[in-house]
Amino acid sequence: SLFTVPKGIILTPECLNYFVIDETNYEKLILPEIENIFPIKESTPYAVRSCGSNEDGSGGSLAGKFDTVLNVKKSGMKKAIRSVIRSFNSPEQNSDAVIIQEMADVDIAGVMFTAAPDNPFLTLIEYAEGLADRLVSGMVVPAQIFIGNCSGHILGGQEETSLTPREKDSRFYQHLFIVGKYIEENFNHPQDIEWG
Question: What is d(CA 154, CA 139) in angstroms, rounded to the nearest whole number?
């Protein structure tokens, strides 16, 4: 396939209401329902993050505005869900669900903007070693690659010098660009896409 997405499950607003009303509902109602659909394994690390219909769209992105908890084991799931829900408490933050997703084991990760924030005629690929959370939260200065949206050619940027030759290979960025344009076409507007 053109791209893969790690397995996961979305906890809907209705589900989260049971959690907010009484956290003991997690063990009684929520976890058993999750386990029927998406068995959570103690040995697998998960990402627990916001997932909202208004979170990212044509009007902008709320990337990094809500809590994301990484490397969550089954025993820490309730605490992670609570942390993400508590990050919703601001009126301008319009997330309405939580996603639990298996974590990908990656060497580099980043965010691709199919319309760069300062120039919609460019795709901007930002990345850093490790997981994308450090990048999204602003903890690291990312390496950057700019690709022309019309030409598909790499037009410049600033690369991280410690990356392997494969990661510096222009085909790597071309593949990301093609995937980004495919996703953009399917959603009919520019996208910001976390990748790893």
Answer: 26
User: What are the residues whose beta carbons fall under 8 Å from the beta carbon of 53, sequence distance 6 or more?
Assistant: 94, 96
Task: Tell me phi and psi for residue 103, to 5 degrees.
Answer: -85, 145
34 sits in which H/E element:
helix 31-37
pTM to 2 decimal places: 0.71
Residue pointed to by tokens 């997405």: 5
Sheet holding 46-50, edge to edge: 8-11, 98-102, 46-50, 68-72
What DSSP string runs through 56-117?
A: EETTEE-TTSS-EEEEE-GGGHHHHHHHHHHTT-STT-----EEEEEPP--SEEEEEESSBT
Distance CA 35, CA 106 (A): 26
Task: Return the ∠ at Cα 103 (arms to 98 and 106), rounded to 5°.
Answer: 140
Query: Shortest CA distance to 48 belongs to which of 77, 13, 15?
Result: 77
Question: Looking at residue 26, what DSSP letter applies?
Answer: I
Question: Which strands, in side-by-side order, build the sheet including 108-113?
Answer: 154-158, 143-148, 122-129, 108-113, 192-195
pLDDT in tens, 80-122: 988 888 777 654 444 578 889 998 888 888 889 999 989 999 9
